[in-house]
Write a structure and sequence with these properties.
With 189 residues, the chain is α+β, with helices and mostly antiparallel strands. The chain has helices spanning 24-35, 128-137, 140-149, 157-171, 177-188, and strands at 2-5, 13-17, 43-47, 50-52, 81-86, 92-97, 112-117. It has a 7-stranded antiparallel beta sheet. A hairpin with a 2-residue loop joins β3 (43-47) and β4 (50-52).
């Protein structure tokens, strides 16, 4: 299955091999780990017009059985799509497409990320428009300007580390498939 985050450029997507018996609740966790989210917010799936999602204490609920309803129950066909919404404030909307159905004959455990591109936006960046604006503000040219400002006065090493770490978060836009699979392996245990 391919998961693509809407509204961001460069594109952020993942291709996953998952078992059909996976529940909606488990699929949520797989997508969180594969995309790089931290599961700090509510979510929901929209499959064939119906809403499915988990709940947290004090929050509303979409469906009673995300822990028992598995993906196979939907009988999804190849190339069929559904949506996944994460964080109702930032509205991170993902397109999820079943690319191909196969028999699992490999010895490697599932779920597994087999391809992807783009680093996931940091949590709490405020949605795709604010994220895209932040990417502009934190571009390579702006980074070089920031380095030039370091020449102007004394440097507090502690502050410098914090600022440099923030710049690295914004400048490193690569997707690390190995790290995603390491996170996914924790689910299989």
């Amino acid at each position: 299955m391919r998961i693509s985050l809407r509204g961001v450029s460069p594109p952020v997507w993942r291709r996953l091999l998952i078992p059909e018996q996976i529940t909606i609740a488990q699929l949520h966790h797989v997508m969180q780990f594969a995309m790089g989210w931290n599961d700090e917010h509510l979510h929901r799936f929209i499959i064939r017009g119906w809403r499915y999602g988990g709940h947290r204490d004090g929050a509303f609920q979409f469906f009673d059985g995300p822990d028992t309803l598995n993906l196979a129950a939907f009988g999804l066909h190849e190339h069929e799509r559904f949506a996944y919404l994460y964080d109702f404030t930032s509205w991170w909307l993902h397109d999820v497409r079943v690319e191909r159905r196969t028999c699992h004959q490999r010895s490697r455990p599932l779920p597994r990320c087999v391809a992807g591109a783009g680093r996931c936006p940091p949590e709490d960046t405020g949605g795709h428009e604010r994220y895209m604006n932040a990417l502009e503000v934190h571009g390579e040219h702006e980074f070089l300007e920031w380095i030039e400002t370091l020449r102007e006065g004394q440097i507090d090493v502690g502050d410098l580390r914090v600022e440099a770490d923030e710049w690295l978060i914004w400048l490193d836009r690569r997707f690390d498939r190995r790290a995603a699979n390491e996170r996914l392996r924790t689910l299989a245990r």
